[in-house]
Amino acid sequence: MPPEMRPLTTRQQQRIDKKKKKMAAYLEIAKLNDQDIEAKQNTGSSNSEGEGSELCPQEPSRKKQRTTEY
Where is this chain compositionally biased, Low complexity type (predicted)? Predict the structure, then answer.
């Protein structure tokens, strides 16, 4: 038999199954994130008059502030 046609060991099969479960969980989280983003965009467009800006303050930047000393 060629090496690529060898049957998988039980450990290899367990690893593959674990990867499949992790990928399924990742895809589910990605879907939920997409739904959250879409919901935020929908609520933002409905409050286009500026009413929502008081209720939802802008999130702070995650970037580190640059301090330059010359």
Answer: 44-54
Q: Specify the amino acid at residue 13.
A: Q
How far is 10 from 16, CA to CA, in rounded Å? 10
Domains in the chain: boundaries: 10-38
- What pLDDT does 38 receive? 93
| Residue 68 one-letter amino acid | T
With 0-12 CB in 10 A as exposed, 13-18 as middle and 19+ as buried, what is 23?
A: exposed
Phi, psi of 4 (to 5 degrees): -75, -10
pLDDT of residue 20: 98
Instruction: Tell me if residue 44 falls in helix, strand or coil.
Output: helix
